[in-house]
């Protein structure tokens, strides 16, 4: 698989789970990958897996809900590898508790990471992708966005927002050959 040879990808939440799988798969397909996570050890583990398989990875430790961290992450990709072709905004947090009992701080954190983090990552990926003549923005949503479970009100709202973001942003940036998909 060499479909991404010469391409540059950022994967947020790449320290484990879907993010790690995505980062490794993109590397195996030939991309240089910026491995983002808030956990240093997890990010290092993913970068090690990529490196041991012969891939190229750079670590970025940062919180996608913080503008400075997102800007730094995108700047790292551009400075280190010359551009950005793929943004997989995957980082997320879960907190299952009934809405009536949920503290506002927990609501704020869920929305900050699971929705605002996605928006910031997508927003800051657009300019470097335009310079490269296109790209792909991948947003991780959840089945919770369309199928209800108790204790998931805020998480479901955030993930439904991710789907709406993908749908609407694809109309804004499609003319620049930038695809936007929610998975």
Summarize the structure.
By secondary structure, this protein is α/β, with parallel strands linked by helices. It has helices at residues 17-28, 40-52, 67-81, 104-132, 153-173; strands at residues 8-11, 32-37, 56-61, 86-89, 135-139, 178-182.
Secondary-structure map with pairings?
Elements: E1 8-11, H1 17-28, E2 32-37, H2 40-52, E3 56-61, H3 67-81, E4 86-89, H4 104-132, E5 135-139, H5 153-173, E6 178-182
Parallel strand pairs: 1-2, 1-4, 2-3, 4-5, 5-6
Tell me the strand order in the biggest sheet: 3-2-1-4-5-6
* Rg over CA atoms: 16 Å
| Apparent shape | globular
Please count the helical segments: 5
Parts with pLDDT < 50 across at least 5 consecutive residues: none
Query: Structural class of the secondary structure composition?
Result: alpha/beta
**Strand-and-helix sequence, N→C?**
EHEHEHEHEHE
Quick one: biggest sheet? 6 strands, parallel
Overall pLDDT score:
95
Beta fraction of the residues? 15-25%
- Alpha-carbon distance between the two ends: 21 Å
| Strands, count | 6
Helix content range of the residues, please? 40-55%
